[in-house]
Amino acid sequence: MIVNETANRIWWRSTSNEYPVVHNSVSDMFAHIAFDNIHFSLFYIKEIFTAINQNNFIIVKKYERPLIQLLKLNDNYQKERISRVLNSLYEVFKKNYTYWKFCD
Asked: How high is the mean pLDDT of the chain?
């Protein structure tokens, strides 16, 4: 799965819609892989926000756990990941500001 990241994008996105145990396990696994791996971290963040942008605002909550697990990693790239996620969240909020009541 990790060797061929591009071919498995659909599987990555669908795991967030599965049962909570799968959702949490996959979040932990990807966070473990992202530790001290900026290439994978940035790719993973990009994929999460691609999925968020392709869906409606209700789906955003399902990506909360993977993002938190990723941001909690205490390594050399933590600040860069936090910056990237916050900037991406800001873009999502700007896009959905007309539906602010539903996005709280």
From this structure: 79
pTM score, whole prediction: 0.75
CA angle at 51 for the pair 58 and 95, rounded to the nearest 5°? 65
CA 39/CA 46 separation, integer angstroms: 11
Q: How far apart are CA 76 and CA 37, in angstroms?
A: 9
Work out the burial of residue 6: count CB atoms within 10 Å of its CB; fewer than 13 is exposed, 13-18 middle, 19 or more buried: exposed
- Non-local (6+) Cβ contacts of 8 within 8 A are 1
- CB-based contact 51:15 (threshold 8 Å): no
How far apart are alpha carbons 7 and 84 in whole angstroms? Answer: 24
User: What does the alpha-carbon distance between residue 64 and residue 60 come to, in Å, rounded to a whole number?
Assistant: 7
Query: pLDDT by residue (tens digit) across 28-64?
Result: 888 898 899 999 999 889 988 888 887 776 667 778 8
